[in-house]
Amino acid sequence: MSQFQINPDFIIEDETALRGLFEPTHTLAALKSLYHLDQHARDFITRAPFLCIGTQNAEGRADVSPRGDPAGFVRMLDDRTLAIPDRPGNNRLDTLANILATPSVGLLFLIPGFDETLRINGRALLSIDPAILEPMAVNGRTPKLAIVVQVAEVFIHCAKALRRSRLWDPAALQDRKAMPSLMQMLLDQTGKAAEEPMDKVDAGLEEEYRRTMY
C-alpha cells in the first residue's frame, strides 16, 4: 500500500480552529467532571471487569493497554485512590515503564451490557505494598505489583460510541475464524516459521493461558 500524503492545508493546528468546527458543549457535559469517586463511580467500578489504561513514555509516544479480571477487580483504597493489579503478561512492561517515565494516565472502564463508560484521569505510581497486593490475590497468586492511581478527574461518558459500534449486540458478533489465530499472525508478522503443525502451536498457547492467567 502506498503512503497516504496528508494535505497540510486541511490540518487543524490550534484550539481556536478546532472549537470553531463545533457547537459549544452543553451545560451538563461541561459540569460533569468530578474530582473524587462518588457513589455512581464507585458502583460502576465495582461492576466493571475490564478497563483500558492509556500511558505515554518520556518522548510522548502513547500506548493503550487492556486490563481484565472478575468484576470489581480494581480496588478503591479511598475516594481519590485506585489500585489495579498487574497480572502475568508478556513482560514487555510497556505500561509500567511508561508510568515510571510519565505518571499521567487515563482509564476507561467498561461493563458488559452497559453502553455508558466511566473515564478517570490521574497520576499513577507502582506499589509492591503487601497491604495493597494481598487482597487482590486470585487462585492463591498475589500480583507482583499494583498500579496505584491518584484520581484527578472522573466522569461518565455517554453511550454513542458503543451504540454506534454495537459492541454488546449479539447480532454484531463476528466469526473469530474470519482471521488467522493469534499465533499464526505473530509468526507472519515476525517472519518466523512454525516448528510444528499450527493446531499444536495454537493448543500450546491455550495451555499457556490456562497455566499463567494468574
What would you note in describing this structure?
The radius of gyration is 20 Å and the shape is globular. It contains eight helices and seven strands; from the N terminus they run αααββββαββαβααα. It folds into two domains: 25-165, Pnp Oxidase, Chain A (Roll), CATH 2.30.110; 174-212. The protein is an alpha+beta fold and 214 residues long. The mean pLDDT is 96. 29% of the residues lie in helices and 25% in strands. Residues 37-158 form the Pyridoxamine 5'-phosphate oxidase N-terminal domain. This is Pyridoxamine 5'-phosphate oxidase N-terminal domain-containing protein. It holds the Pfam family PNPOx_N.
Keywords summarizing the entry:
alpha+beta; 214 residues; 8 helices; 7-stranded antiparallel β-sheet; Pnp Oxidase, Chain A; Pyridox_Oxase_N; Split_barrel_FMN-bd
SSE arrangement:
Blueprint: H1 15-19, H2 27-31, H3 39-47, E1 50-56, E2 62-68, E3 75-78, E4 81-85, H4 94-101, E5 104-110, E6 117-127, H5 130-133, E7 146-157, H6 160-165, H7 182-190, H8 198-212
Antiparallel strand pairs: 1-2, 1-5, 3-4, 4-7, 5-6, 6-7
CATH superfamily of the largest domain: Electron Transport, Fmn-binding Protein, Chain A
Shape: globular
Q: Which assembly state applies to the chains in this document?
A: single chain
CATH topology of the largest domain: Pnp Oxidase, Chain A
- How many β-strand runs? 7
Terminal CA distance: 41 Å
> What is the C-level CATH assignment of the largest domain?
Mainly Beta
Query: What's the main sheet like?
Result: 7 strands, antiparallel
Low-confidence stretches: none
Number of helices: 8
How many separate domains make up the residues?
Answer: 2
Any idea what the radius of gyration is?
20 Å
What's the average pLDDT?
96
- Strand composition percent: 15-25%
Strand order of the largest sheet: 2-1-5-6-7-4-3
- Topology as a string of helices (H) and strands (E): HHHEEEEHEEHEHHH
The helix fraction, in percent, is 25-40%
InterPro entries: Pyridox_Oxase_FMN-dep, Pyridox_Oxase_N, Split_barrel_FMN-bd
Domain Pyridoxamine 5'-phosphate oxidase N-terminal: 37-158
Protein name: Pyridoxamine 5'-phosphate oxidase N-terminal domain-containing protein
Pfam families: PNPOx_N (PF01243)
